[in-house]
Amino acid sequence: MREIPGLADVLAAKERIAGYVLRTPLVRCPALGLWLKLESLQVTGSFKARGAFSHLLRQRGRCAQGVVTASSGNHGQAVAYAARALGLRAVVVVPEDVVRAKEAAIVRLGAEVVRCGRTTAERIARAEELARAEGLHYVPPFDDPDVVAGQGTVGLEILQDLPEVQEVCVPCGGGGLTCGVALAVKLQRPDVRVVAVEPEGAACFFASWRAGRRVRLERVETVADGLRAVEPGALTWECGRRHVDEFGTVAEEEIRRATVRLALEGKVVSEPSGAVAVAYALRRASAATVAVVSGGNADPNLLADWLRQGLD
User: Fold this and answer.
1) Would you call 48 a catalytic residue per the annotation?
2) Tens of pLDDT along 224-265?
3) Which of 37, 40, 46, 48 is catalytic?
């Protein structure tokens, strides 16, 4: 396991990625009774660009032959976008059931797409095989200090924009965003609670937290395609164990309702993965609660179906 990054690493990542990514808005949503950190408005539609640029800019000397990564879609888009900006070849391993809109976006950004399996572990194994076979530099989706430091810049912005914040709820898959935000927040404001939120059907961090050790799930099943990790990363688990105050889960219906409420009441387009923290925060929303909306790359057909169903 590589060393867990510290606050200095997150601050360095902030300087490194400046000019490549957006400072996204933190907005109060009276209809939902909480604040929303809109990473859905980030370049490529999710927070992932922060970690991708942080890693590629730090490891640029190793990327001459190109880069490869594993992704359900958002990290792949981010790596493709960053690689194009830096003049690098990119290959992205996606799941067999990839959201078509996400795959199309990766291709539009100039990357090559390879399909493999349904879980994060299957994709990572295939991406690592391609890296060895073709001499490509592998860009981890979450279990990497440069990626974690880049994602941590979300936490820096939350503290700067809302000094009175008391709780930050963060979607959790492999743990890169959760741990980055936890580092940035807890190392400056230990009084602020950080909550990692997973779908009930893919809750590897919650299971690990209860067991007191990393747990590998036998299967995962959730509509939140970006959060289908079967096991926490070694680095992200250790970081989460130290700095996250609470690990929580939400049901599939809560995810659906949060996605719909974001659209109808908050006027925010979110993918299911991006809405899980909102789903959890809605149980106890307050004027000092921030929920990170981690991505807005929704499947148009699924979102349309959910909006037709409404909140009944």
Assistant:
1) yes
2) 999 999 999 999 999 999 999 999 999 999 999 999 999 999
3) 48
